Give the backbone structure.
Amino acid sequence: MTIIAIVSQKGGSGKTTLSVNLAAAAEAAGAVALIIDTDPQATASQWGAWRADKAPEVIDSAPPRIQAKVDAAKAQGATFIVIDTPPHADSAASRAVEVADLVLIPCRPSAFDLAAIKTTVSLVRLFDKPAFVVFTAGPHHAPRMYEEAIELVQSFGIEACPNILPDRAVYRHASAAGASVVEFEPEGKAAAEIAAIHAWTIAQVNMSTTAHEGV
């Protein structure tokens, strides 16, 4: 089972968008996916309610119950779990990072957003978990901007995912319809970008597991 924590101490970074679409991409690729929503705003849970019983399932959890929810999901056959966390909530973020195989930190490629990830990076270091920044909601074509953003996050001691999720209206349209971009526009650019991040995520978890077993 693969467990991905989506963590950022800054609001508006795209955590829920990444969470629900990554889980949906995993489901489309053959996994039994589950989203654990730890955010009191329950945005992912609302998305799940709009979908009725359509996979991936979304369940909510208080921070102290995350491990128990993960264990129950594993027993019921889940193979890919995404934990969506709220901003400014150290307890939820800490519990999510603690149980995760990989941590993804969504971040807009702007100076204020980039500066704000330092707190999240410090949290990840406490648990010594593999983690990467995923750039979200930026322009489609701004190579110099992303190069500078990558250099900055590297100066914080963390690497960036090579795949980005630029701002696309289809994310908003899909969410309003209770769908993922993979379902809403399967041949679109956003669907391809999410699928690429899912494939990259699986590869990173496999690499980390192999390295750990080799120690």
